[in-house]
Amino acid sequence: MLKKEVIIMGISMEVGGTEKALLNYLNEFDPSEYNITLLLLQAKGQLMKMLPSNISIKELTEYRNEIRYYHNSFKKNLLYLWDKKDYRSLLRYTSNKVIQKIANNNLYILEQVAGNLGKELKKYNIAVAFAGPMDFITYYVLKKINADKKIQFIHFDIDHIQFNRYLVQTLYPDFDEIKIVSKQGKHKFEKKFPELSNITKLWNTTINVTDLKKQALEGGFHDKFKGIRILTVGRLTYEKGQDIALQLLYKLIYQQNLPVKWYFVGDGEEKVKLKEMAKTLQLEEHIEFLGTQLNPYPYFNDCDVYIQLSRHEGYCITLAEAITFEKPIITTDFTGSKEQLINYPNSLILNKDDDMVTQVSQFVSEVLIKKQYSVS
């Protein structure tokens, strides 16, 4: 029997929730039935070493040269093309920018970026735009890859990201399936784009529980702190809400007198700002930034409470991982959190209308009492 040819397109394999979901997705394909090609915009990241050995990895190297049209300023691109004496591209780029401004969409710039890239010569049975929604990957899978079936993934809450309605209405009908990672996220998408509801499907992220628990035996916290260890795992970015965590920690310590220490696993653009904030709030002894960890599971295993204060999510992988380790969980009410915790008793979804400090301090106090009782 001939194997089916599948190409899956992503951004990179840096440590992140979408990338972990991609690893899980790749493991769903039986190597005896599928030949898998992973096409990345950048073939880099700590998770590269965790990719299944049976897949073929390709990098879209030309992307780095062409993406300047998308990210650089209009003036910088004009000067670049003028210096190259590439007057044809200069005229096309200028025209596309004018049309983009008038039409209020990026389709014409996408056409410019992808237009200079060659098509995938191989014919595939299935092509997947996994890192979604990302406009370029969506466009490339639809226009540059020859496949019998095409699938778009949506991993984020579309109410909280830049989501070009015109692009969705123009491009997404050409997909055979749109896979969305949570029921609530699917509901939001179908409400906004009812004409696409016939091709939307729920995709449940799978987690290898046995593998996670095996990895959890490899290490853990190295300090001698005896109080309640709070853990948060995720990129240090605004949407993940670590700044909210620091404000909350200040009140738990200096107003509620709780013996807590908060550990953050992850790295990102907000790291310097968060460290300065921690210093200003006199939290340096009560907080630890552990950086990116390829294996964060010993920390999941050893923490007393897992807290996720994200401003928005599509489906929170780290929340699912905390559930795997049966930890007490506190989370904000983002997309997917209720369905993830619906049958999980030892959890608290914060009510935005009530005082966060009161809710969290009561929950953490109960955890502290149980911990003290178990020790005695």
UniProtKB/TrEMBL annotation:
Q: Which domain of life is it from?
A: Bacteria
Q: Which GO terms describe its molecular function?
A: glycosyltransferase activity
The record, for CDD domains, names:
GT4_GT28_WabH-like
In this protein, which residues make up the domain named Glycosyl transferase family? 228-357
- One Pfam match, given by its short name, reads Glycos_transf_1
Q: What name does UniProt use for this protein? A: Glycosyl transferase family 1 domain-containing protein
Q: Which organism is it from?
A: Jeotgalibacillus malaysiensis
Q: Could you read off the lineage of the organism from its UniProt record?
A: Bacteria, Bacillati, Bacillota, Bacilli, Bacillales
